[in-house]
Amino acid sequence: MIDSPDNQSKVASFFGYEEHGTDTKTEVIAGITTFLTMSYIIVINPAILSEAITIDGYSDGQVFQMIAITTILAAVVGTVVMALYANRPFGLAPGMGLNAYFAFTVVITLGVPWQTALAAVFVEGVIFMAMSSVGARRYIIEFFPKPVKFAVGAGIGLFLLLLGLIEMNVATAHDSTLVTLGNVASDPVALLSLLGLAFTLVLYSRDVTGSIIIGILTTALAGWGLTLAGVVNDGLLTPGSVPDPHFDITPLVGAFIQGFQNIEPVTFAIVVFTFFFVDFFDTAGTLIGVSQFGGFLDDDGNLPEMEKPLMADAVATTFGAIIGTTTVTTYVESSTGIEEGGRTGMTALVVSLLFLLSLAVIPIVAAIPTYASYLALVVVGLIMLEGITEVNWEETDWLIPGGLTMVMMPLTASIATGIAAGIISYPIVKTAQGEYGDIHLAQWILAGAFVLYFYVTSGGVI
């Protein structure tokens, strides 16, 4: 019997219940809570990636379902490794921000084939695994300017906000101002999106567990209800057609191998670097923040054996690239489960099990309108803006690099450009202040590399 005293004792011993002051019931409740708060990724990741991934012989709906499945499988693998290897109550899944960078910047804007973009994710994952295995994290962190590291999260938040508002028809293109307010009072998509967003934000402000996924599903149901009632034309608030269930992901599995053909070295290197940079510091920052909330940090403010959860992230990212999805990272939503008392890998194990069970609802996910899915981008974007408070705006050497990092991401629709702007400006500002000793040689090298990259890619050289 799985619930026999002997088995319970083994589970308690394996996860260290006594050491962490917890029990199975508490861990299960915590796992359910974490899953509900991060399950929106099952809907939003395929909504974003399907904008860039097209497969001959398969409909958009079928591709959507393929990506939803790979999203779930990557989350399952990463969270299981987190549970059994790292013994931490953290959930993992393809990360917000990097999926948008993959789709809208790398594939759509730069014209990089999606298979090559997956190859870049794979390389980044392998590098991350190698670094995690030798404990190199602390050395790499020293190379990057603090203002840039602390500004990346807020910059990605602004980027996600813009993408979400555009997809919801709230923000639209304008010849003179580039972007302007859409016809929100007369456009059914914009109107329903705003109502759904308001409902979601009310739930979130009242600390309702699963507020984002509840908001997405409620908005989608409202769209279907208005359509079936004949209030709006068919296909306006709903997908044009609902695809049949499709569970075959073989066209995505291994597609990254094809991506290694005909690579443009400079562009590929910068894409790998950006995936690596954002994933590395986003994961590290999330781990520290969530660990602080759960009381896992030592007296020096460090997370003991931090390389283990970082390895879980790296393994999941590599696996995700192999089966066809983007960079996997630790989710800040894990803090909701910790708040419910989750303290061990059992919480993560429950999260992984629930992700696995969610494979049964893949056909339903394909019926959710895109605008409803993109509510998550706006909400998550707002949440990520909290990183603004981490930047010391009173110091010029923080203000300029940090500010440029943030604003250049949404203004250029590129996370990489924002990071580059911050890295290039940092040594220049420090030099102007006469603080040469604070500049690491690697920071000059990175700045020079980015200047060369912009000259090559924006100067008509390629």
Order of helices and strands: HHHHHEHHHHEEHHHHHEHHHHHHHH
**SS-derived structural category:** mainly alpha
Assembly type of the chains comes to single chain
Strand runs, count: 4
Coarse shape:
globular
Q: Mean of the pLDDT scores?
A: 87
Which segments are poorly predicted (pLDDT under 50) over 5 or more consecutive residues?
none
Termini separation comes to 65 Å
Q: Largest sheet, order of strands side by side?
A: 1-4
The largest sheet, given as strand count, sense and whether it forms a barrel, is: 2 strands, antiparallel
Strand content: under 5%
Tally of individual domains: 1
Number of helices: 22
Helix content: 55-70%
Computed CA radius of gyration, to the nearest angstrom: 22 Å
Task: Write a structural description.
It is a single chain. The chain is mostly helical and 462 residues long. The chain has one domain (21-240, 264-458). 66% of the residues lie in helices and 3% in strands. The chain has helices at residues 5-15, 17-20, 24-38, 41-49, 60-86, 98-109, 114-134, 137-141, 146-167, 188-205, 211-228, 255-258, 265-294, 307-323, 334-339, 345-357, 362-365, 370-373, 375-384, 396-412, 415-432, 441-458; strands spanning 92-94, 171-174, 178-181, 328-330. A two-stranded antiparallel ribbon has the order 1-4. It has a two-stranded antiparallel ribbon with strand order 2-3. α5 (60-86) packs antiparallel against α16 (345-357), α7 (114-134) runs antiparallel to α14 and α9 (146-167) packs antiparallel against α19. The longest helix has 30 residues, at 265-294. The mean pLDDT is 87. InterPro entries: Azg-like, Azg-like_bact_archaea, NCS2. The chain crosses the membrane at residues 28-48, 63-85, 92-111, 117-136, 148-168, 188-205, 212-232, 266-290, 310-332, 344-364, 371-388, 408-429, 441-461. One of its GO terms (cellular component) is plasma membrane. Its main location: membrane. This is Xanthine/uracil/vitamin C permease.
